[in-house]
């Protein structure tokens, strides 16, 4: 059971860290990067000198269309702003509207590493990526968001990559 002082401290840490990172996240939709970052968790630990904040316990992060749900999220900041978001879960989940034409991109994995400046999403262990009904699943998936490229691999022969590719839509269906 939390006392009022602990709740106030956690709320203050969350507000401080949100403002600390909010101005620097550059995401796919033009207005995502201008939106504030909202994070809810059971605990938070800020190491301002290292430029890191770690959230644990049913963590929910949102900025614009970007949503990440995980058991633990660590956010790292460098001189150029927000650099990396690492999420761990069983699985951790990612969702974002990359552009208005394609609908939401959804992804999951035991570990999600989002390099914000490079706009690269790496999904590790029990990983999957779904976009427009196309599904990639395997042990490791790297999604280059700007380039719209996906690389999936699995180090073990018995853990093959699985894909579902939708047929091309007719103009009349769009």
Structure, explained:
This protein is mainly beta. It has one domain (4-173): Sandwich (lipopolysaccharide transport protein A fold). Helix content is 11%, strand content 53%. It has one helix spanning 4-22; strands spanning 38-40, 43-47, 52-63, 66-78, 81-97, 104-115, 120-131, 134-144, 149-153, 162-164. Strands 1, 2, 3, 4, 5, 6, 7, 8, 9 and 10 form a ten-stranded antiparallel β-sheet that branches. It is globular and about 50 Å long. The model is unreliable at 5-28 (pLDDT under 50).
Write a concise synopsis of the structure shown.
With 174 residues, the protein is mainly beta.
% residues in beta strands: over 45%
CATH class: Mainly Beta
CATH homologous superfamily descriptor: Lipopolysaccharide (LPS) transport protein A like domain
| Count of runs of 4 or more consecutive helical residues | 1
Shape: globular
- How many domains, in number, for the residues? 1
Taken in chain order, the helices and strands follow as HEEEEEEEEEE
Radius of gyration: 17 Å
Name the helicity range: 10-25%
As residue ranges, the low-confidence spans are: 5-28
Average pLDDT, rounded to a whole number, is 80
Structural class: mainly beta
Tally of strands:
10
Biggest pleated sheet: 10 strands, antiparallel
End-to-end distance, in Å? 53 Å
Work out the oligomeric state of the chains in this entry. Answer: single chain
Query: What is the CATH third-level topology name?
Result: lipopolysaccharide transport protein A fold
Indicate the CATH architecture.
Sandwich
């Amino acid at each position: 059971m939390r006392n009022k002082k602990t709740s106030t401290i956690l709320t203050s840490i969350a507000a401080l860290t949100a403002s600390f990172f909010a101005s620097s996240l550059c995401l796919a939709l033009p207005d995502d990067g201008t939106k504030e970052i909202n994070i809810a968790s059971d605990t938070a630990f800020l190491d301002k000198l290292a430029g890191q904040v770690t959230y644990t316990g049913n963590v929910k992060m949102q900025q614009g269309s970007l949503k990440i749900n995980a058991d633990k999220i660590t956010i790292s900041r460098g001189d150029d702003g927000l650099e990396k978001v690492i999420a761990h879960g069983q699985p951790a989940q990612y969702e974002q509207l990359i552009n208005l034409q394609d609908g939401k991109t959804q992804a999951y994995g035991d570990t999600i590493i989002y390099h914000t400046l490079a706009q690269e999403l790496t999904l590790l262990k029990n990983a999957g990526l779904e976009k427009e009904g196309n599904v990639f699943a395997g042990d490791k998936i790297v999604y280059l968001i700007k380039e719209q490229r996906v690389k999936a691999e699995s180090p073990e022969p018995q853990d093959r990559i699985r894909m579902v590719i939708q047929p091309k839509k007719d103009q009349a269906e769009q």
